[in-house]
Design a protein that fits this description.
Radius of gyration: 26 Å
Largest sheet: 15 strands, mixed
Number of strands: 19
Number of helices: 14
Shape: globular
Helix content: 25-40%
Mean pLDDT: 94
Strand content: 25-35%
Distance between the termini: 68 Å
Oligomer: single chain
């Protein structure tokens, strides 16, 4: 080879001043090129226009179709679906007549047993919390029961308990304080106990007024409840309790006329190719009843729009956006496995991880949740009412699987974007080092992924408004939602350049332990 050819070959193989001008990839999102608060509000209002979106409903299908149209319009995105056949539960009529008068009902308990159009008529009994429901006090009766409440101490979310870092610059989270909230998801236990005792129906009474609990949706297992059951606001519940105490109420008629209809629901997958096929999966669900509950997909739309504008050289890994179904139908494929669409997807990703096709999972739920406080109602009215706290957002729980490179990256992104009142956690249940993983709960959609030993980051909040369809976009702080969306997009970008070992952390060892027969989550 002559000298000129050697020089040409060297020029092709070695950086020159011209060839060294490589593409400068951003290390974080350019906020000026990202969706504004007004844009996120616009998306949330569009989401709200579909109405409540329980699994398999036409409103959920319309929401998924809209999401697919939004994602398909992004250059480079490819879409596909995972379809599931279910029997959709639909309430036709819910009503209550007591003492000859109609009593407003806030909502049927999801999947409550149908009474048919005629309803069920029976004596009524009030059994206060702490009173066991037995055949002696409940057989043949409609049981009135107060909704259970949970009190969660803040100390759980600080080191050395479940927390490994907290971002709270204003020191607004009192270490010795606690958060109390109603727990409609716990209604299953009272309904099951009432059924075992021979009761014919259950009325669950909230401490909140009818206008706030109207449309309450929980629990959402996707399995038939043993009895007809419905929710009442505090005033209606007090009306029944007073009549029972005065012995002026002999019986009532509860109507939960419902039907099960075969239908198909789907998980939407939208894939943005990167420099390699190994993918980062960004996930949220499409079934919810409030503006906040399933607003993760809105952040994912804007995340995808921004990432698609980057050259493929700045997306080292493929990014797959998964809009799962079955969050409000947790037995999506049958009564024996509690998984929802997230669990179905996690099983697929588990297999693909062993094939080198998956880097990790990021789950986003309930972004920008405002804090609501339960305060005394005016004029001596019974119960409490929810009032927005303008100075505070709801605590954001952010579990991250074991491994300090991944956790350090998450902490840096949260602090950089100032996503305040964020507790970065090891999990949301007690650790058990004799199983893999050590924590089996990440609080929501993230749970199936950690149980399948996938490197997982999972954001979730639990405001008092979460299960309440009566709260709309006013329950979202769009400034906070935007900062959160920026932070999670930053995380996706940084995961694109991290080594697989740094993303995986201790998940690599735990997967090896599982292969050798270690105990997992039941």
């Amino acid at each position: 080879m002559g000298l000129p050819l050697l020089a040409l070959a060297a020029g092709l193989a070695l950086p020159s001043s011209a060839l060294a001008d490589e593409i400068a990839c951003p290390a974080r999102v350019d906020a000026s090129a990202f969706a504004t608060e007004a844009k996120l509000l616009q998306l949330a209002e569009r989401q709200q226009s579909f109405g409540v979106r329980p699994t398999g409903s036409q409103s959920q299908k319309d929401y998924i179709d809209w999401l697919e149209a939004e994602m398909s319009a992004i250059p480079g995105i490819r879409t596909s679906s995972l379809n599931y056949d279910i029997d959709r539960y639909e309430s036709v009529t819910t009503g209550l007549t007591a003492g000859g008068a109609s009593v407003p009902v806030a909502a049927p308990v999801p999947f409550a047993r149908s009474t048919g159009a005629a309803g069920v008529t029976a004596p009524v009994v009030y059994l206060a919390s702490g009173t066991n429901i037995t055949a002696a006090n409940a057989a043949g009766k409609i049981v009135v029961r107060d909704l259970p409440t949970l009190s969660v101490p803040n100390a759980l979310f600080f080191p050395p308990l479940l927390g490994w870092a907290v971002h709270d610059p204003g020191l607004t989270i009192p270490l010795l304080g606690s958060e109390s909230l109603e727990a409609p998801a716990q209604s299953n236990a009272d309904i099951a106990a009432a059924s075992a005792a021979g009761a014919v129906g259950v009325l669950m009474v909230s401490q909140l007024p009818h206008a706030q609990v109207e449309g309450m949706y929980a629990p959402y297992e996707g399995l038939p409840q043993a009895l007809p059951a419905a929710y009442l606001g505090v005033d209606q519940g007090q009306q029944l309790k007073d009549a029972l105490a005065a012995r002026t109420l002999a019986s009532a008629t509860l109507t939960v006329d419902a039907r099960w209809t075969p239908t198909t629901t789907r998980t939407l997958l939208a894939t943005l190719p990167g420099g390699e096929a190994k993918k980062i999966v960004v996930e949220s669900h499409t079934d919810g009843t409030s503006a906040l509950w399933d607003n993760g997909p809105l952040s994912m739309i804007e995340m995808a729009r921004y990432l698609a504008t980057l050259p493929v050289e700045c997306r080292p890994r493929t990014i797959q956006f998964a809009f799962t179904t079955g969050h409000l139908y947790q037995h999506l494929t049958g009564p024996d496995v509690r998984e929802g669409g997230a669990g179905q997807l996690a099983a697929i990703l588990d297999r693909e991880y062993d094939e080198g096709k998956v880097a990790g999972v990021l789950v986003v739920e309930h972004l920008g949740a405002r804090q609501y406080d339960a305060v005394a109602r005016p004029g001596g009215l019974p119960g409490r009412q929810l009032v927005v706290n303008r100075s505070l957002s709801q605590l954001l729980w952010l579990p991250v699987t074991d491994g300090w490179p991944l956790r350090d990256m998450v902490k840096a992104a949260i602090q950089d974007r100032d996503v305040r009142r964020t507790a970065m956690l090891t999990g949301l249940d007690g650790a058990d080092v004799t199983r893999v993983p050590h924590h089996c709960s990440f609080g929501g959609e993230g749970t199936p992924y950690v149980q399948h030993l996938l490197p997982t980051i999972a954001a979730i909040a639990a405001p008092k408004t979460l299960f309440l369809a009566s709260f709309g976009t006013e329950a979202i702080d769009f400034g906070l939602m935007r900062r959160g969306t920026l932070a999670f997009t930053d995380m996706v970008m940084r995961m694109g350049t991290m080594s697989q070992a740094d993303i995986a952390g201790d998940m690599t060892f735990m997967r090896e332990q599982r292969a050798r027969g270690a105990r997992g989550c039941s």
